[in-house]
Amino acid sequence: MENVFVIVPAKLLDSVGEFRFLTIGQSKSQKLLVISHTERENEIRLISARLASKQERKNYESGV
């Protein structure tokens, strides 16, 4: 599998007033990760990072 990152379109969270992004890609150790982040004042703020679920992995591998 080629090391490709996928960025899911942002969602605006009204309670916080900021956009949240999901990025899916492989780590150097070949783990497929899902990372949530936002941008504040031109800086990227990491919200969470976790291993991809079976369904997320399937979607990633099929190019969805």
From TrEMBL:
InterPro entries: BrnT_sf (IPR038573), BrnT_toxin (IPR007460). This is BrnT family toxin.
